Amino acid sequence: MKPPITRVLVTGATGFLGRNVLAALAARPDVALVAACRTPDRLPAAFTGEVRVGDLRDPGYRKAVVDGVDVVCHAGTWGAFWGHAEQERRQFFEPNLDLIDQAIDRGVRRFIQTSTIAIAARPADGGPIDDFTPTRRTGFWPHLDRLIDLDDHMRRRSDRDTQMVTMRLGHFVGAGNTLGMVPALVPRLRTRLVPWLAGGRARLALVGGSDLGEAFALAATADGLDDYESFNICGPTLPTAREVIEFIAEETGSPRPWFSVPYAAGYAFAWLMEKLHPLLPGSDPFLTRSLVHVSEDWDCPTDHAARKLGYTPREDWRNAVRASLAEAEASGYPWPRLAQTA
């Protein structure tokens, strides 16, 4: 007897996360894939599933795109590493909120939301941050604060027969990821103005594309989930910031930081850079408070994902970073934007 087929919608199917989710789900014979995107020409050439073309900012599209699917993997997003509060509300938060409600109204069985480990409140004692650690708004990073609002909404509406799953993802790394810590770090190292933060002792919760894709595929197909779930999804090891920066410097021939500052000084300098940005050259500030925030110590075990999903991360962070650097080198190590284009 053949297993029942689960129809899984992947939004943002042409982005870094979406492409990896599609790849992982495509290997499952009990899944029928539906890709949602604006530009189908950018879908993987091997993709053979249904394509629903549209813009998630369009209310009519949001209503139609979830029709007849069992699970939504919401990988589509708009985001910025600093400011842009109004754009976050209009282009990210409100469409995302409505997509969740449309999924409930249309009887979708499970909605899987892309989020980040950085929504959690870090414990004062520096201990592990579990999957359900209460969240804490920053007050300075609108995108992260809106993610917390979405998580709150999902908790409240998890009694409507649509299971809600928040994926607290580590920091993306890998080829195809153009908005993240590694792409932002390389050109800044070359200015010799990047310091160690607190000696570079913080653990960085990096996670590669194949592990991200597999985590979503498992979350889409697992049995026995509760009405509301939250999963830390990180790589197999948590390297320190010093290990990662030393590796990048070695691979690219970039200078290593030559001085260290405490986090408080990092936040103060980042605040100054954000305020002075309109007066300084460049499309984005040299440093933002969000970059300092994600560089804090994030010790986020994935035990809950291992138990309930069978998640076993395998992608070595060095290979993922190396792939990202190779792509950046081919483009001449451009100075990446810290906000997505429209």
* Run of helices and strands: EHEEHEHEHEEHEEHEHEHHHH
Unreliable residue stretches: none
What would you call the structural class? alpha/beta
Instruction: Characterize the biggest β-sheet.
Output: 7 strands, parallel
Number of helices: 11
> What Rg is obtained from the alpha carbons, in whole angstroms?
20 Å
Q: Mean of residue pLDDT?
A: 93
The order of strands across the largest sheet is 3-2-1-4-5-6-10
Strand elements, count: 11
Strand residues, percent:
5-15%
Give the helix proportion (percent range).
25-40%
Shape label: globular
N- to C-terminal separation?
47 Å
3D structure, described in words:
Helices cover 38% and strands 15% of the residues. By secondary structure, the chain is of the alpha/beta class. The strands form 3 sheets. A 7-stranded parallel sheet has the order 3-2-1-4-5-6-10, sandwiched between helices. The protein has a two-stranded parallel ribbon with strand order 7-9. The longest helix is centred in the first third of the chain and has 21 residues, at 85-105.
List the helices and strands and how they pair.
Blueprint: E1 6-11, H1 16-26, E2 31-37, E3 50-53, H2 59-65, E4 71-74, H3 85-105, E5 110-116, H4 142-156, E6 163-169, E7 171-173, H5 181-189, E8 196-197, E9 206-208, H6 209-221, E10 228-233, H7 241-252, E11 260-261, H8 263-276, H9 289-294, H10 303-309, H11 317-330
Parallel strand pairs: 1-2, 1-4, 2-3, 4-5, 5-6, 6-10, 7-9, 8-11
Helix pairs in contact: 1-6, 3-4, 7-11
